Amino acid sequence: MSESILERGKNISFGYAALVVGLVFLFVLGGAIVFGAAIETMFVLAWLFTVPLVMKTGYTYKETQEFGWKVVMESLEANFIILIVGTMIAALIASGTVPLIIVLGLKVISPKAFLLTTLLVCSFTSLATGTSWGTIGTAGLAMVGIGNALGVPVGMTAGAVISGAAFGDKMSPLSDTTNLAAAVTGTPLMTHVKHMTLTTMPAYVICAIIFGFMGMKFDATAYDPTIVNNTIEALSGIFKFSVIELIPLAIVIVLLVRKAPPIIALLSGTFMGLLVAFFRQGESINALLGYLYDGYSIDSGLTYIDKLLNRGGIMSMISSFLIVFAAAAITGMLSESGILGALVKPMANNCEGSRFKTVLYTLIIGYTTNMIGSSMLLAEIVPGTIMKPIFKRNKLAPENLSRLLEDSGTLGAWLIPWNANAIFGATMLGASVAAFVPFCLLSWISPLFSLIYAATGITMKKLDDSEEKEIV
What sections of the protein cross the membrane (predicted)? Predict the structure, then answer.
């Protein structure tokens, strides 16, 4: 994709573009909501009418297909990581890593401090690893287990987990979304990260205060430790615990901090988890290989323990994988053909000379792409390429745009029920999207700061003449 994405739609009317995008959107959501069909199924079926509608604008079938494959290939590495995260989760449960973290947390965390602690733990984990999904599948999964034992509503816990995980995914230089936002806009990575602190840190402080006050409602004096003690006793009876069980997670964190490729880091943690499970927990090779595919499985006789542990594996990630794959193909056809460009061109042109409209429309395009494409990566690529020339025309530095891409892309993905991120969060944390969306506080608050800054001009860095010439 390039800056000419707006020009690709020069022969496509706004009405036709709105018709095509509206049909795709209504078809996918209609099938999911009215008939309960899987989102990925609807995206695949949408190919039947998306292709001829794109071809009607003057492209051949081969060209239309190549548009879809182009974006699929751009998101392939991130999509493959989805499957690897599934194997890592299964391995870290079988090794005793996740159960040990749960036990340690149950011993030291009180109900009043739990939500704030969850936010901080997941933030640090995500900052260190650069992956929100990996954080949710490890530290987040453990914190949900602790929260269930403490009697904290799972929606609140999941909201704190996702807020912390999204914070790290947004602010970590190791994150794929952070690097993507910087690359799409032509912003130096650390310039992008530093500029994000101006909106993200105030929003994060507010999140921490709110979660702290929310935790105060839980009466520690009325807290019944029975389920906590039963959980600790049950997990201690199933797994052997020592510092060895923490090695797989430590390897993942160290490798990611040292900037190893995410696939290598996650697979290394998976392999070490298998070794610990084999030598320490007595699991057979056949069982471990089965866990990697179908997820960890145990029948402990305790429903809440089985519900906590029986998860992970490649198959648990297939839905998210297929959603990103199918949505990327459809989005590629719409964006590369110029249909998306034609749809947003009037909006983009309306931004001329208006800082607030430029910011507002960038957020709108980002959220819209997140809804259509069901992927936060696409929600950074599409609005980034569309709005980059508009920001330059309005003499706004590219780091303003890269910051907004993270607000609507990285953070906005968790608020859309059919988005791959929200589906993954619901699957891993055992909470419905409706239950945790109200508590994804960072996703709600950070964009508000961007709008306030747009209205006031605070932190909205302008281009000087030399910087304008350097932007390609």
Answer: 12-35, 42-61, 81-106, 113-133, 139-162, 198-218, 238-257, 264-282, 314-335, 356-379, 422-455
The residues near 78 (Cβ < 8 Å, ≥ 6 apart) are 176, 324, 377
- Confidence class of residue 1 from pLDDT cuts 50, 70 and 90? very low
Reported as a single tens digit per residue, the pLDDT across 448-470 is 999 999 999 888 888 765 555 44
pLDDT for 36-76, tens place per residue? Answer: 787 788 888 998 999 999 999 889 999 999 998 987 887 77
Cβ atoms 51, 65 nearer than 8 A: yes
Q: For 238-259, what is each residue's pLDDT tens digit?
A: 999 999 999 998 898 788 777 7
Integer-rounded Cα Rg, in Å, for the chain is: 23
- The structure tokens 């020339």 sit at 389
Cβ-Cβ contacts under 8 Å for 128 (sequence gap 6 or more):
168, 172, 253, 256, 257
Asked if residues 238 and 281 have their Cβ atoms less than 8 Å apart, the reply is no
End-to-end Cα distance, the chain = 13
What count of Cα atoms within 13 Å lies in the side-chain half-sphere of residue 433? Answer: 12
CA–CA separation, 275 vs 283, rounded Å? 9
The domain limits of the chain are 1-349
Q: How far apart are CA 312 and CA 315, in angstroms?
A: 8
3-state secondary structure of 160: helix
Give dist(CA 47, CA 63) in Å, integer.
14
Task: Specify whether the CB–CB gap between 8 and 341 falls below 8 A.
Answer: yes
- Own/partner contacts of 238-244, CB < 8 Å, gap of 24 or more, are 238/99, 238/298, 238/300, 238/305, 239/96, 239/99, 239/100, 239/281, 240/96, 240/280, 240/281, 241/96, 241/99, 241/100, 241/103, 242/280, 244/276, 244/280
Contact 144, 429 (CB under 8 A): yes
For residue 400, give the nearest of 382, 377, 384 by alpha carbon.
384
Long-range residue pairs from 297-301, CB within 8 A, at least 24 positions apart, any chain:
298/238, 300/234, 300/238
**DSSP conformational letter for 239:** S
Helical H runs in 239-354? 247-257, 262-279, 285-294, 303-309, 314-336, 339-349
In tens, the pLDDT along 265-279 reads 889 999 999 999 999
Q: How far apart are CA 394 and CA 355, in angstroms?
A: 7
Q: Please state, in angstroms and as integers, the Cα–Cα distance from residue 421 to each residue in 30, 199, 337, 436, following that order.
A: 20, 22, 26, 12
